[in-house]
Structures are given as structure tokens and as C-alpha cells.
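Can anyone check this?
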Amino acid sequence: VVGRKASKARAGGNGAGSAGLGSDGGSADPCPGLSRGELDSFDRLLQRAAQLSRTHALNEAQACLESALRMASTAQNKAHVLFNLAVIARQRGDVEGAKKILLQAPTEGVRGWAQAHMFLGILQLESGESRKALKSLARAKRLSPQDAAIYRDMAQAYYNLGEAPKAVHVW
């Protein structure tokens, strides 16, 4: 899970189960470890979700993020929370669920969305959808042309498609 400032989208597999929105896998507590007063703070919910995710308490982190999603008042905030829910799904090994969550996120008026396009491309690569991955990664490249990781992932997609010369050229 990432805080307000973007960090790398790659997440290791951990845990099991589905991270779909509104799943029954979350805790009954809206965000374990927060006081009632803190539950009204969007930023505090995100902070607590990040803390819980780092300790691999994924159900609890998801509960905090779902509470934050209900509070999200802007497209930017909603996109940010959905991105983090997708990361949690990926941490659980639910690549398909992570893709579905990311595709729900608003894209209009969202700053810093290159990371999400890159993450979607990575998920698509993991699913064997190299052509789709190239499209997602091309969007990420347009938004963040200086990010070397995007080019590495594009090279992997070309390589997967049997287009080694393009892979070498991109990388």
C-alpha cells in the first residue's frame, strides 16, 4: 500500500483469498487500531492501511481502505484508494481481482496516474496479456517518460510476444 506520495507498484505475493471490493474477507472493525475520532480522517485511514499492509495484515488494511473509499470525495482520492486496494489484491496473489479494481478507478482529472497504468501493465504481463500490457505501459510512458521501469516492462512484453528486436530497442 502506498501513501499520498507514489512508491513502486510492484508487490510480492502474500496471503490468500480475494480482495474484491466489499468482500466478506475483511475485518468487522472499520479500521482496526483507530479510535472513533480517527475513523473520520481520510488521511489517517490511508496511513493505518499502509501500516497494516507492511505487517501483512491484509484483511485489516483492506477494511481501512474500504472505509476510506466510502469517504473519498474526489476522483483523485477514489483513484488513490482503488490503486491501494489493487496492490492488496496483488499481495494476496489475486491478479485478476487487482486488474478489476484498477479498471474501476476514475482516470479523468487524476494526477500521477502513470504508476497505476504501469501496475496494470505488470498485472497484464503476469496474466499473459502482453498486447494489453503494451497498451497500458504506453499510457504510463506518455505520462512518465523518464521512468526506466516502464521501458523494462515494455521490453518484457515485446519479448513475450516474440518480438526480440523491439524488446532490445525499447530497453
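Reply from J.R.: I decoded it. Residues 2-20, 23-27 have pLDDT under 50 and may be disordered.
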